[in-house]
Task: inverse folding
């Protein structure tokens, strides 16, 4: 392994580039490993973070929360480290006063709010194990997680969430406590805990170590019931400490500008939770945006003005398409397209320079970019608050073109890949050597291996302890000889960058015996402004086909620009002009693959795939079996034509 970098260099002067050690088989890279940048944690836990911050920098604004104001508006107020530690201590004492013991599971069902993070750290300080539940979960889904985890307490954001669980309460004999955050129940807990000495919390914190269980995070369950991933305090610390050191620009002050992150992805997902912990660990100001409604999120971005955001590719695609639609409505579509092409070329030229294969953007390209910056790029940055320099993106591949566009527009994308089982990211774009269109190198301290069948295997200190199984007496191991089989397919290039090519279980095998990975075509089509979702078909069928759903905003804009009447989207399904546009999109996507893998026919569905209908997981992944069942008639008609 390459020698470990100088710690002073890592923490002081800027990011360090530690190239992966590569192993080849028959000339093909089969394994990549990067040594840890952060020393392994041998004692302590996540519960110590608020108190360590309060001791080291009591006045540092570690969080910023939106407070209610007259007239329904609000303002953002800093929460210093010392005050946050006081609040964590008070709530932790309240949990102890309520009789919760070390190791007890406490579930949280809420959107992305300040109270979520407060309760998370308070539970850890009291020696508890937190269990996130998506606020969009059905009563049955929530009951399953509460029942399987053996949760003794539940905190919901709203009374409505609590009431929805009413019919399931008789199946939850272990659930003894129910609190509602909107009703001020955290304040009530803090009041109740006044009689508990501070030392009791200190004792419970003191017995926690890196191997102690911190949380049970349930997978979103694309093929069956969710499984609880047992993540330790050490898993989180290995993940966030190495991420903070690698992503130096995100977590360190740049250009005299203090870093800040506005979190709007679900705290119920390990990605958002991991970044929240990383911000507290690095003392980067963290804010929470609970609403994803466009007007609410834009207001939060404008008020908070973050330097970094978390996003999934779908959101970045929507930002791009919305900006283009706005330009087209104003008669500036051609100007926007030229600006987008300049940004892509600029991003690619910058990438080439960083890899030593080019001299970077030339004078003409720099001039063109400067011309379009106030006209296009600055407006996109303004929609994100005006100060965003970095976006951490995960969940699915972003694509080379869009990554290059954002890089050229002045926003660096750190694309990553990981699972709940790996506490978030296992690979991430290295700041000094990005490879657009890939999900980066192994996170420091991580090894990536490609098995003989193309499956991605992962190893590292952030890999979970196992799957929670109360019927098997605790945990079921999830690794084999230290390697986690991910179920994903991928490839490593000659520098160790990973590209995701699909899922093993989602591989389609046509009647002609051709193996087809759906992901590349689905992701390409999903990035089209008129297409919301796409699912490929073709397993044991004579050819590949696709189900498409329409993007409401994209269709509304297309209808207006083409003089179509304001009719429901389902009445446009047989419109020949719309069909021609979608056919061109399919033809363009088919250029990515061989003819046997290409889409021969497609069907546009009258409605979108939704989580409520059981077609999507809370993290926006397709539930293929359910979609196939619900649209069996449409699928048979596709192949009967």
Result:
């Amino acid at each position: 392994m390459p020698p470990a970098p100088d710690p002073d260099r890592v923490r002081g002067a800027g990011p360090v580039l530690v190239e992966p050690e590569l192993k080849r088989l028959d000339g093909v890279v089969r394994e990549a490993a990067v040594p840890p940048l952060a020393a392994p944690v041998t004692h302590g836990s996540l519960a110590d973070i608020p108190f360590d911050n309060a001791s080291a920098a009591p006045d540092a604004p570690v969080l910023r929360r939106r407070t209610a104001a007259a007239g329904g508006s609000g303002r953002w107020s800093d929460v210093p480290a010392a005050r946050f530690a006081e609040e964590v201590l008070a709530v932790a004492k309240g949990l102890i006063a309520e009789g919760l013991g070390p190791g007890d599971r406490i579930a949280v069902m809420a959107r992305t709010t300040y109270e979520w993070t407060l309760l998370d750290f308070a539970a850890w300080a009291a020696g508890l194990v937190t269990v996130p539940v998506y606020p969009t979960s059905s009563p049955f889904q929530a009951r399953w997680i509460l029942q399987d985890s053996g949760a003794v307490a539940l905190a919901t954001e709203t009374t409505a969430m609590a009431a929805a669980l009413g019919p399931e309460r008789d199946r939850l004999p272990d659930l003894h406590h129910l609190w509602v955050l909107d009703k001020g129940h955290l304040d009530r807990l803090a009041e109740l805990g006044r009689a508990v000495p501070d030392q009791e919390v200190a004792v419970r914190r003191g017995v926690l170590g890196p191997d102690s269980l911190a949380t049970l995070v349930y997978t979103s369950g694309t093929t069956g019931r969710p499984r609880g991933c047992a993540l330790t305090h050490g898993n989180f610390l290995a993940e966030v400490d190495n991420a903070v050191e690698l992503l130096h620009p995100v977590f360190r002050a740049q250009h005299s500008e203090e870093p800040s992150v506005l979190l709007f992805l679900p705290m119920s997902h390990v990605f958002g939770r991991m970044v929240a912990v990383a911000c507290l660990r690095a003392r980067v100001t963290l804010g929470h945006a609970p609403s994803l409604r466009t007007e609410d999120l834009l207001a939060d971005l404008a008020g908070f003005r973050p330097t970094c955001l978390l996003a999934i590719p779908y959101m970045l695609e929507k930002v791009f398409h919305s900006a283009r639609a706005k330009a087209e409505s104003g008669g500036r579509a051609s100007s926007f397209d030229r600006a987008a092409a300049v940004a892509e070329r600029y991003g690619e030229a910058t990438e080439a320079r960083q890899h030593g294969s080019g001299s970077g953007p030339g004078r003409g390209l720099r001039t063109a970019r400067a011309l379009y910056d106030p006209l296009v790029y600055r407006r996109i940055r303004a929609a994100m608050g005006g100060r965003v320099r970095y976006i951490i993106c995960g969940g699915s591949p972003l694509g080379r073109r869009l990554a290059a566009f954002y890089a050229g527009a002045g926003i660096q994308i750190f694309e990553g890949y990981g699972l709940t089982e790996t506490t978030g990211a296992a690979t991430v774009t290295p700041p000094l050597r990005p490879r657009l269109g890939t999900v980066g190198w192994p996170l420091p301290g991580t090894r990536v291996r490609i098995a003989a069948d193309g499956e991605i295997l992962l190893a590292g200190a952030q890999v979970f302890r196992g799957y929670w199984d109360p019927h098997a007496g605790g945990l079921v191991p999830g690794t084999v000889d230290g390697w986690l089989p991910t179920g994903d397919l991928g490839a490593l290039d000659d520098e160790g960058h990973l590209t995701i090519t699909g899922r093993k279980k989602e591989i389609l095998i046509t009647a002609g015996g051709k193996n087809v990975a759906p992901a590349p075509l689905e992701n390409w089509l999903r990035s089209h402004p008129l297409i919301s979702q796409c699912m490929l078909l073709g397993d044991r069928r004579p050819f590949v086909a696709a189900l498409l759903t329409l993007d409401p905003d994209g269709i509304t804009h297309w209808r207006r620009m083409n003089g179509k009447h304001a009719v429901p989207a389902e009445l446009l399904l047989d419109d020949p002009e719309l069909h021609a546009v979608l056919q061109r999109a399919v033809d363009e996507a088919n250029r990515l693959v061989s003819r046997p893998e290409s889409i021969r026919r497609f069907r546009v569905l009258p409605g979108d795939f939704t989580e409520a209908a059981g077609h999507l997981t809370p993290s926006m992944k397709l539930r293929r079996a359910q979609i196939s069942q619900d649209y069996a008639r449409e699928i048979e008609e596709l192949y009967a034509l």
